[in-house]
Amino acid sequence: MHASVSNKSSFCYALLYCCLVWLLPALSYADTFGVEVKNAEIATQGNSYVLSADMDYRLSARAKEALQNGVPLYWDIHIKTLQYRGYLWDKTLVNTSVRYRIQYHALLNMYRVRNEGSRELYNFSTLSAALDSMSMLRNFRVLDKALYESGERYAVGIKVTLDRDALPLPLRPIAYTNPQWYLSSDWTLWPLTK
């Protein structure tokens, strides 16, 4: 009877040890990489409300290695404007995104950042300068003043995601299973007031 109990407890300890060993790499990287929306401000400009925001990109070692090997990384900055409604789900008034591609060119020893919407292309000599160029969103139109109704509540949300589906096919399974590729931010919401 005692041997059965000690075998069960040994098995439980071994199972707990295996889980900790499996999770330890993920826990050791916690908060060292990812994207965070740092500041946001909503202002009026002409007949519109505009959003200005700052993001902080912190790439993991795996993402930096892929970038150094010529793999382009695609980032989407998702922006939405919501109207709160008490009786139904919230109404989405604006749902748009800005897409950036960052890629390292070894021959030129340069990082290139391209705004996929406007097709603007910028070259940088360092990774930090390239990431800084993607980190500022300025005067992005989020709502026409004519759509703002007094007495209603509105919010503007922003989320930054790494498009793992845009990675080369052999890298995708790794990107979905390795925590170092979980580089997206959560939604951050700010109230939109008149």
From TrEMBL:
Q: Identify the keywords attached in UniProt to this record, alphabetized.
A: Signal
> What are the boundaries of the signal sequence?
1-30
Pfam families per the UniProt record, alphabetical? DUF4390
Q: Which domain of life is it from?
A: Bacteria
Its recorded name reads: DUF4390 domain-containing protein
Q: Which organism is it from?
A: Methylobacter tundripaludum (strain ATCC BAA-1195 / DSM 17260 / SV96)
